[in-house]
Amino acid sequence: MDYPALERAARRQAAAELTRHAVSELDRIVSGRRPLCAVRHPLGFVCLPILRDGSEGVCVHVFGAPEAAPDEAAPQVHSHSWELTSTVLYGRLGNRRMSVADVTERPTHRVFEVLSDPSGVDELRPTQRLVRCAPDVEQTSGRGQTYDLPAGEFHTSVVPDGRPTATLVLGRTLPGRADLSLGPLQAPGHRMVRRTCDASQTARIAQVALRRIHEPEP
Fold it and tell me: Which among 141, 174, 151, 178 has a CA at the least distance from the CA of 61?
């Protein structure tokens, strides 16, 4: 998979081209030509890691799969160490940007640093940074639409009405950045685990996603 080519297609809003790439990769997973294990993310989606090449990555995120139950302890407001460009393959996905200001009086949240281990364990460590967080602009994207989230921007993602949704995600990690989340002021550090699916579960997830890509929107 050619990351720069996908990035150029995303800039052109070439949804049909991006969808063709996603379909090709999902078909390879279903047929067994691409050995790959889906990852259950604590935020309530399944990640199919299509490409990992240094600072660049491509994933298909599937919301609404039975394997994608969210972890109630997972912090919803977070920011990435990587810049993200995402195209909706089917369904709808909402992203609410959050206004986060460092304060010393009447803070609402503490900032946690998220340290991810290749084993699938995410360690959330409390920092000394206290902030006040308030909802900002919300953007909802539907099938064929592409949106961007810059690195370091706090946000939370929701699936309207809980309908099945999938996105093709391009990400590029920026040097010197950290993954962050917001939590209660007095919360201790804790760990979350991203568990993998087996080959048959992964193939089933990819097969359902393929079918929904080809179905018309309700």
Answer: 141
